[in-house]
Amino acid sequence: MTQDTPLVLIPGKIHPRVVERLKAAHTVLQVPVEEVASLDEATRRRIRAMAFSYGGGKSGELIAALPALEIIANFGVGYDGVDVKAAAERGIIVTNTPDVLDDEVADTTIALLLNTARQFYQAESWLRAGHWQAEGPFALSPLSLRGRHVGLYGLGRIGREIASRLEPFKVKISYHTRTPRQDVSYGYAPSLLELARTVDTLICIVPKTPETHKAINAEVLQALGPKGIFISVGRGWSVDEEALISALKTGTIAGAGLDVFYSEPHVPAELLTFPNVSLLPHVASASVDTRNAMADLVVDNILGWLENRKALTPVPETPAR
């Protein structure tokens, strides 16, 4: 290895398949995030690519410390952990992993919705604890999908997959995005609040942006109503958890299902106390096949750039030379 050999940096932890494949093709430097800035200048100047995981640290500081960086391959479809503004100002390409996890997240969303409405987890726990034999049948589900009107806050790739899975359930579907889509026939609401007023089931699948911060607030939950079910599979950033807890306490809504939380892995203790709440530890895309596919796309973006100057899935905010 010469002093001119380019390095691929992995700051902190990432899926092991990313490490394995990158090491087979290039020289990889994997160090804790906090040690990147203390690397000697010659080493930092050799780093041309970075494989980045959401929990990997402050990407803005990493970008500033790496003068030769050309590409950041983000592990995940959401790339709010990457300082895309700083990257764009430097002409650095940022990539993400769209499409490969859409089906898994959509499947999990439907499962979370069904479990929240029908309380299947509680029913299984009842059976496993011996209550069925000792005490009789589990209580009737207070909620159902029958005749519901489902609203999607966000109708991107994953949102459309969720909607397509909802159609066989014979529910009505509406959505809110910044602008109406011309390629769907679902009802459009011009605002999130109007959507909540229109539907009785609300699924949040928007990315983390300044506009989506705590967008699911007390007013939206009040509009959803006492038969309302709220499902969150986008980012915990989008939900005012104090308002949600209050709405569940007062019966403002009927139930909620959450796969994401505001300060992960911290989950507000009060959410654990509600029998009408389903909680998952951010596992919507967490299958072996899907995570392997995400890892492969991270690596393929880096290899494509270093070997052919072509990134496969650049995000729109940064150049795609």
Describe, in plain words, how this protein is organized in 3D.
The protein has helices spanning about 15-25, 40-45, 60-65, 85-90, 100-120, 120-130, 130-135, 155-165, 190-200, 220-225, 240-250, 290-310, and strands spanning about 5-10, 25-30, 45-55, 70-75, 95, 150-155, 170-175, 185-190, 200-205, 230, 255-260, 275-280. It is α/β, with parallel strands linked by helices and about 325 residues long. The chain has 2 domains: about 5-100 and about 290-310, NAD(P)-binding Rossmann-like Domain (Rossmann fold, 3-Layer(aba) Sandwich), CATH 3.40.50; about 100-280, Rossmann fold (3-Layer(aba) Sandwich), CATH 3.40.50.720. The strands form 2 sheets. Strands 8-7-6-9-10-11-12 form a 7-stranded parallel sheet, sandwiched between helices. Helix 1 packs parallel to helix 12 (about 290-310), helix 5 (about 100-120) packs across helix 8 and helix 9 runs parallel beside helix 10. The mean pLDDT is about 95. It comes from Rhizobium paknamense. Keywords: NAD, Oxidoreductase. Belongs to the D-isomer specific 2-hydroxyacid dehydrogenase family. Pfam families: 2-Hacid_dh, 2-Hacid_dh_C.
